[in-house]
Structures are given as C-alpha cells and as structure tokens.
Design brief:
342 residues; AttH-like fold; twelve-stranded antiparallel β-sheet; eight-stranded antiparallel barrel; 20 strands; globular; DUF7064 domain-containing protein; DUF7064
C-alpha cells in the first residue's frame, strides 16, 4: 500500500466518532502488516509518567518498523526545561535496533537492548514498565491502570487511554514517588513518512484531572486567531476545522468533540510552547475552556527533519487542576522562520 493512501493520521483531516478495538490490538498486527509493504509502516506504543511536584516528565516509547525489521525507542525523563534531549537526567533512546525482541515475542512482554521492559498485565487495562541504569543512578518501576476505555479512532488503527500511574523513579540518584496520571496511545497499520510537511505545527494535548475527567485534543491553531506562523503557511480556518479532533472523558462517559481550538504562546528562543488556551465542545453540547501552563519541556529529533517537543502541562478548568502532555510536531519552514524572527 502506498504512502499517500495510508499516511499518518496526525497530519490528516479526521472523521468524527469512534471506532472499536479488542484485546488483540495490544499485540503486533502481524497479519495486517503482511498486507502493507511500504517501508514507512509502523506500530507504536507510547507510555509515560510524571511527578508534577518535581517538574518531572517522561516518555517511554516503542516504534516498530515491521518492513525494515528495526525498532526505535527506549526511555526519557527529565526535570524542568531542557535545551535538548541529551541534557536530560535520563535519556536512552535508540533509533536503529534490530526487532529481535519482537520476532519471537510480542508487545505483551518484551525488553529492549537498553533494558527498558514492558509487561501487559491485563489487555486494555493495566501495564507495567521498568528500566535501570545503575551507573547513572537512573531507574523506574511504574504500573499504569486504565481509568477509562480506549478512545479509538474511526480508522480502527489508533487509540488513546487515560491511565493512573503508580510507582517510583530515580533520576541521577534522586528518588521520587509516582502517583498521578498519563494518557497512553497505541498506533498500528499506518505509514509514518519523514517528508517535510508544508503545514503549521500540529499539537497533541492531553490532560487528566481525576478518574472522572480527562481530555485529548489533536490539531492546530486557527489562522484567524493570528498565530506566530500566520504569514508562513497559505492556509485558512478550514484546515484546523477538518483536522482538529479529540475526546472528553467525563463522569464515566466517553464523548467526542464537535469543535475544538487551541491558542498557543511560544518562546521564540527555544521554539517551545509555554502556554495554551483550549476550547472544546462535546457531542452533548457542553463547552470547555482549559488553560495550560507548560512547566517542563524538552525536544528529541526522532526524525532529523522534524522538531518534536514534549512538555508537562498544568491544566486548569473551572477551578480544578490536572496534568498532561503538550506535544508538538513542526517542520523546517516554521522553525526557520521562528528563529529568523519571521
């Protein structure tokens, strides 16, 4: 299947509604993968944890390239705002590992060459992750337990899920208790191409207040709101209107969005987002406004020609506080103009 018929959903207009998944979708999609011949074919597993009181955030990642027989991924954790991934207290991501751990095994239990290991305790409900680098005083053991069912894209090739996180992490010998939330995701059957994109930065925003309220928004700012990239891209509001999507988990019910927007404040010196205002309307007509302050940021160029930033964000909504991710993907035109003062 060619890249133009099965490219990543991150940059494409989205259908409304939800799809469905089963416990089998926690595992490698070997049968499907045999029908998809593009070298850009991927399967991903994104997990993580944070310690908001310490400004500590993380990304634990497996990115399988089935047709190349390679794996990218590992572990990453840091405190505060860092200029790049190698300034982190913990960074052990590897980009060209052979897929040996998955040839005879599967995603229910594996260990990468760097020692990062994942165990699926109960499909669609609980996972355990761990890692140790004794020489640097880095280690963690974390259990992630679902607080909601998976929110599945209509394509049936991706889901998000808010998770409770409990455990501990040691960064450079300093130990922290983990007792919070994260939103994990899982993708399969898509071609993630490295081509530079002539589109504005794409935001991936998540937040969890408690077991009864979580959200996710994927999309971009509206040109009519005057974002700093407004003069770089010849796009209008129809692009974010077609692209922006997400969900709300509220009081035991999973709801889609009928509209969503984000306005972002940027640090021109780093290119990092520093704050967001998100507005959303769910399928029951309820409106939400959330303000997010990014308290810990970092970047990792998993693709050399993409600028990928992740941050720990404090969200406030109707007097309540939650925590989650601020992630962006941006490409050369945006980054060039930002640092040129354009």
């Amino acid at each position: 299947m060619s890249s133009d018929t099965n490219t990543s959903f991150f940059m494409n207009p989205q259908k409304a509604g939800f799809g469905s998944c089963t416990a089998e979708d926690e595992l490698l999609h070997r049968e499907l993968n045999r029908t998809l011949t593009d070298p850009d074919l991927t399967e991903t597993q994104f997990l993580g944890f944070s310690v908001p009181s310490a400004g500590l955030h993380s990304l634990c990642y497996l990115w399988a390239h089935p047709n190349l027989r390679l794996l990218t991924g590992g572990v990453w954790a840091w405190r505060g705002v860092k200029p790049n991934a190698l300034a982190s207290e913990l960074f052990d991501m590897r980009q060209f590992m052979p897929d040996t751990p998955l040839r005879d095994g599967d995603l229910d239990k594996f260990q990468l060459a760097n020692g990062y290991h994942v165990e699926l305790v109960e499909p669609l409900r609980e996972l355990r992750i761990g890692y140790e680098d004794a020489a640097r005083g880095n280690a963690f053991e974390v259990t992630l337990t679902a607080i909601m069912p998976p929110a599945v894209l209509p394509s049936n090739r991706h889901f998000d899920q808010a998770m409770r996180t409990r455990g501990w992490v040691s960064l450079r010998g300093e130990r922290h208790v983990i007792d919070g939330y994260t939103v994990r995701d899982r993708s399969w059957g898509e071609n993630r191409t490295e081509d530079p994109r002539a589109i504005p930065p794409v935001h991936w925003l998540t937040g969890v207040v408690d077991d009864d309220f979580a959200f996710h928004l994927m999309g971009m700012e509206r040109p009519s709101d005057g974002p700093i990239w407004r003069d770089i891209y010849p796009v209008d509001d129809s692009l974010p209107e077609a692209t922006n999507r997400g969900w709300i988990w509220r009081d035991g019910e999973l709801l889609g969005l009928t509209s969503a927007s984000v306005r972002t404040r940027w640090d021109r010196s780093t290119g990092y987002p520093t704050a967001h205002r998100v507005t959303m309307t769910d399928t029951q007509g309820r409106e939400y406004t959330l303000d997010g302050d990014v308290v810990a940021s970092n970047n990792w160029s998993a693709w050399s020609n993409a600028f990928l930033v992740i941050g720990l964000t404090r969200w406030t909504h109707e007097g309540r506080t939650g925590w989650g991710d601020s992630q962006i993907g941006a490409w050369t035109d945006f980054v060039h103009a930002l640092h040129a003062g354009g």
